[in-house]
Amino acid sequence: MFNFKIIESNYYLRHLSLLMVKKNKVSLKDQIVIEKLPQHIAIIMDGNGRWAKGLGKLRIFGHKKGVSSVRECAETSAELGIKYLTLYTFSTENWSRPKIEIDAIMELLVSTIRKEKETLMKNGIKLQTIGDINSLPTKCASELTKTIEETACNTKMTLVLALSYSAKWDMINAIKQISTKVKDNSLAIEDINDITINQHLSTRNLPHPELLIRTSGEQRISNFMLWELAYSELYFTSKLWPDFNKEDLYEAILDYQNRERRFGKTSEQVS
Ligand code: FPP
Fold first, then answer.
1. Probe ligand 1: pick from 43, 44, 48, max atoms within 8 Å of CB?
2. C-alpha 164 to ligand 1 mean position (Å)
3. Residue 245 annotated among the catalytic residues of the structure
4. Please, what are the domains in the chain?
5. For residue range 193-238, what is the model confidence (pLDDT) as tens digits?
6. Is 94 a residue of the active site?
7. 86, 71, 212: which is closest to 159 by C-alpha?
């Protein structure tokens, strides 16, 4: 009963605050509780194609506009104090798209990394990747390696690009590595646990995301961080990725901050 009231009052407070925002009394950003920020936000950037189609343009036009949202979200996250931002940029399954679109995305990736190096340095952002980087075109892989090295000393935030990545690809690799260790007797089957799995995934140096955002109205995970998202809060918005801006990011964070994270416990235990 008591906890029900807390939830109820949270609900009214949230609506009251949104009303105040609408009346320009208090900004969304000002409502964010810095002490309750997620450490790691993961985003499935979706809707570039539909955004372009809506304007009667080619899909690549949407991807190009999507870069502005990437920049805005990375800068805003770093400014707020988010420590890790992971962007699902190109999935294993995206290799099945028409070659012309794949080539255009790879070109865009190279030109964006080159152009945005300054943004990364200015904001203290370290670049990292997860995924099968060797499968990317050589120019793309070498540009990434160069930027990863050049931004390695930045400490404000880590921007992780998931490229040629899928959670199943990552899990298969982890299982292969673990099996090899069991086979050569350097690991006992009884010792395999949560930590063992974590240590063999490409996300091994990242905390699990507390918040996953997916744009474009689709409500699915699409083979993204299946292990790591086990207890993440999921936030879906109908905004298409090229339209997603910092206000939308604030709104997602505020929504997250109003959730009760129970991790299988009861409400009484966590309150
Ligand atoms: C999903 O929209 C988007 C992608 C597969 C590509 C994302 C790439 C970018 C935002 C540009 C480059 C990014 C960086 C980090 C430099 P979709 O094409 O699936 O859209 P649709 O569902 O409307 O077809």
1. 48
2. 13
3. no
4. 34-166+209-258 (3.40.1180.10)
5. 999 999 999 999 999 999 999 999 999 999 999 999 999 999 999 9
6. yes
7. 86
